[in-house]
Amino acid sequence: MSAKPYRCDGCGRREFKPAPMLRDDVWLKLADEHELLCDKCMWRRQRERRVSITIHSLAPCPVNLASGWFDEFARLVNSPPRDIDEWRAFALDPWVLARNFPPHSWLVSPAAIEAFKNEIFMQRFGGSVHEASEFLLAFLKKHHKPKL
Ligand SMILES: [Zn+2]
Fold it and tell me: How many Å lie between the centroid of ligand 1 and the Cα of residue 17?
């Protein structure tokens, strides 16, 4: 693996969770145009400069969906942001789905996700609950080793 070429311009760390992609008008209150910040430095500047960051501050883009920022900010509000249609345009991007599944219920209806899971179940086990439970048991033994 090659070393990551970037570092946080706030603290200099190389290994970090990147801050969300913010709308330009919000980002420019926190940083210069070409600065890169980790999440901790973003929140520190947010407090220092008293900048409001909400779900409406996020730029609708695949990265904010894949990295979970949309879901994280969505928990803080009761209704979808005004630009939800822009977010939905990225929700079915395979790159996004592979990184954050299932999609938030404002992006894809929970009924559709359930139908999808049932379809996978039928394809893999032919509807056999017995085979499915055997598979689940083997999976849990492999991935959730009990502490001895
Ligand atoms: Zn930092």
Answer: 9
Q: Which pLDDT does position 129 carry in this prediction? A: 84
- The share of the chain scoring above pLDDT 90, in percent, equals 70
CA of 113 to the centre of ligand 1 (A): 36
Determine if the pTM surpasses 0.85.
no
In a domain, 103, yes or no: no
CA nearest to 84, candidates 111, 103, 101, 102 = 103
Q: Count structural domains, the chain.
A: 1
- Cβ–Cβ under 8 Å, residues 65 and 87: yes
Domain that holds residue 123: 109-148
Query: What is the distance in A from the centroid of ligand 1 to the CA of 70?
Result: 20
C-alpha of residue 18 to centroid of ligand 1, in Å: 9
- Which residues have CB less than 5 Å away from ligand 1 (the ion)? 8, 10-11, 38, 41
